[in-house]
Amino acid sequence: ILYIELGRRIDLNIVGLGTPGHFLVRHEPKQGAKQIIDPFEDGLILNEDELRTRLRENQGESLRDEHLKAVSKRTIIERMLRNLLGNANRENDQTSMLHYLDAILALNPSSVQERLMRAVLHYQSGTPQLGLRDTHWLLDNKPEGLDADRVLELHQALERAELIGVIARSPPSAQVARDAILVLLEFLIANVLIAPIAARGV
Questions:
Q1: How confident is the model over 32-84, as pLDDT tens digits?
Q2: What pLDDT does residue 105 have?
Q3: Which of 35, 53, 128, 141 could form a disulfide with 162 if both were Cys (CB 3.0 to 4.6 A apart)?
Q4: How far apart, in whole angstroms, are the C-alpha atoms of residue 26 and residue 71?
């Protein structure tokens, strides 16, 4: 982003590219040949053959036309946020993960994977009522690529977790009955709902 912005300030048309793994830019002058540049390698200029070799060796992918298309600023920001999300995930930093997911979904509300991830994180963080917002949204809007059965199972698990929280916060007058219901609900969530979801890998 800094490379693109610096180029703009000195009247150079530099765009970001959607290459996998490593972010590249391209200088597109009003006259003359376009140049693919690696801003992380001291401005190394790559031709398409060199880029093709790099993708094959580093990413195991073939160069496709879509990799050479200019991407929007919104797409660049989403990519940065997903990189930060991946770093937070490796560090098991759930608080940061939720912040990055909030930002990604503000840009792209229909992202199924990020909504599912946020719902699961809210379940794990003890805030199932917030996770229910995402499963409600997914079930109501049915975006492309949605596995409705999978989302419904997660939705039911969140509902039961929320019910457990409500019971746990209830007055202590019916302590024995309350404890029995909690044990039963915890068993159902762990063995009937969450285990199958975890086995498939949400």
A1: 889 999 988 888 999 988 998 988 888 888 888 888 899 988 888 998 899 89
A2: 95
A3: 128
A4: 11
**Which residues have C-beta within 8 Å of that of residue 10, sequence separation ≥ 6?**
none
Check if the beta carbon of residue 123 is closer than 8 Å to that of residue 165.
no
Mean pLDDT of 169-196: 53
* 182 to 132, 187, 192: CA distances (angstroms): 20, 9, 15
Q: What is the DSSP letter of 107?
A: H
DSSP letter string over 129-196?
HHHHHHHHHHHHH--TT--HHHHHHHHHHHHHHHHHHHHHTS-GGGHHHHHHHHHHHHHHIIIIIIHH
* Secondary element (H or E) of residue 58: helix 48-58
pLDDT in tens, 37-46: 998 888 899 9
- Judge contact between 159 and 132, C-beta under 8 A: yes
Angle subtended by helix axes 94-107 and 73-90, to nearest 10: 160
- CA-nearest of 29, 28, 26 to 39 is 26
